[in-house]
Amino acid sequence: MRPIQARISTGAMAHNLRVARTHAGAARVFAVVKANAYGHGLSRARRALAAADGFAVLTLEEAANLRLMGVDQPILLLEGLFGADEIATCAELDLWPVLHHPLHLDWLRQHPPARPLQVFVKFDSGMHRLGFPLADHASVVAAVRSVPGVAGVTLMTHFAQADEPAGVDWQLQPFLGELAAHGLPWTSANSAALLRYPATQGAWVRPGLMLYGGSPFADATAAELGLRPAMTLQSELISVQMLQAGEGVGYGQLFRAERPMRVGVVACGYADGYPRHAPTGTPVRVDGVASRTLGRVSMDMLCVDLSDCPAAGIGTPVVLWGEGVPVDAVAASAGTTSYELMCALAARVPVVETG
């Protein structure tokens, strides 16, 4: 078989959840498992994160699958209802939808659920993506409370710059100040806010990236935050080439050797989920030795520098990201985020589960 594989550690995910709890105070923890648990597998993440107080997903299908897997904790629908027909399923499966638009209230009035629902009412505190205007909080909360199909209300917002120097105060303080009079539970913290801003804890926190071993910060590695990588993408050398000074490698000959050097060809490319736009110098490990990519990533292959790996040959292991090569470092080199890399893992890459 082609030697590429993704090793996914359930033990690392469980460890990272424990780290999240150390920052959560008295807040309960929603484990965010949308997008197939950030590429790690919904069923696998459900088992690894079974100690979470609840799960947060994007779609009704994800929520229904979790219930079929035996999950009995609360399940939050982060983007809420996509149609009035989903209300009945929310009641049947005891799902907690996010309400962020007046149309959601109309649907609940017109199609009352068989049993009242716990709902999360999202307010836009500055991200300007989803949410009721914060200035309308009094009328919105009153309207939600008047809907017979609502059993309980939790207030919610989302931060735009929790992972940046601007921080969260410019959103958190107006959110808390405006909504304090309602006396309702609230949630605001994603991974970045949970790790750096204790004031965002609220009743629930919503870590995602950190559960999979990624750092939300440019100035702090996952290891420095006490996190372990859950996904390790690895492959092997399938060929070794010898370049002379001035010779290039790969499409476009973007890399040219300055001196004679050995180049390894790795069975991994952008069709496997590795970023095509990763430039020369993106970190890898060859047989445990730190190295770098060379030239343009192809569909099925990429090239690496073997200058410091004189014994490397066909079959030598290569780590593309994960253990020994932080996915955040690969993402930074490629000008993207670790979220994208993990979510983009291709279906053709075999997955091996580890403890």
Automatic annotation (TrEMBL):
<keyword id="KW-0663">Pyridoxal phosphate</keyword>
<feature type="binding site">
    <location>
        <position position="129"/>
    </location>
    <ligand>
        <name>substrate</name>
    </ligand>
</feature>
<feature type="modified residue" description="N6-(pyridoxal phosphate)lysine">
    <location>
        <position position="34"/>
    </location>
</feature>
<dbReference type="InterPro" id="IPR029066">
    <property type="entry name" value="PLP-binding_barrel"/>
</dbReference>
<feature type="active site" description="Proton acceptor; specific for D-alanine">
    <location>
        <position position="34"/>
    </location>
</feature>
<dbReference type="InterPro" id="IPR001608">
    <property type="entry name" value="Ala_racemase_N"/>
</dbReference>
<dbReference type="Pfam" id="PF01168">
    <property type="entry name" value="Ala_racemase_N"/>
</dbReference>
<comment type="pathway">
    <text>Amino-acid biosynthesis; D-alanine biosynthesis; D-alanine from L-alanine: step 1/1.</text>
</comment>
<feature type="domain" description="Alanine racemase C-terminal">
    <location>
        <begin position="230"/>
        <end position="354"/>
    </location>
</feature>
<feature type="active site" description="Proton acceptor; specific for L-alanine">
    <location>
        <position position="251"/>
    </location>
</feature>
<dbReference type="GO" id="GO:0008784">
    <property type="term" value="F:alanine racemase activity"/>
</dbReference>
<keyword id="KW-0413">Isomerase</keyword>
<dbReference type="InterPro" id="IPR020622">
    <property type="entry name" value="Ala_racemase_pyridoxalP-BS"/>
</dbReference>
<feature type="binding site">
    <location>
        <position position="299"/>
    </location>
    <ligand>
        <name>substrate</name>
    </ligand>
</feature>
<comment type="similarity">
    <text>Belongs to the alanine racemase family.</text>
</comment>
<dbReference type="InterPro" id="IPR009006">
    <property type="entry name" value="Ala_racemase/Decarboxylase_C"/>
</dbReference>
<protein>
    <recommendedName>
        <fullName>Alanine racemase</fullName>
        <ecNumber>5.1.1.1</ecNumber>
    </recommendedName>
</protein>
<dbReference type="InterPro" id="IPR000821">
    <property type="entry name" value="Ala_racemase"/>
</dbReference>
<comment type="function">
    <text>Catalyzes the interconversion of L-alanine and D-alanine. May also act on other amino acids.</text>
</comment>
<dbReference type="Pfam" id="PF00842">
    <property type="entry name" value="Ala_racemase_C"/>
</dbReference>
<dbReference type="InterPro" id="IPR011079">
    <property type="entry name" value="Ala_racemase_C"/>
</dbReference>
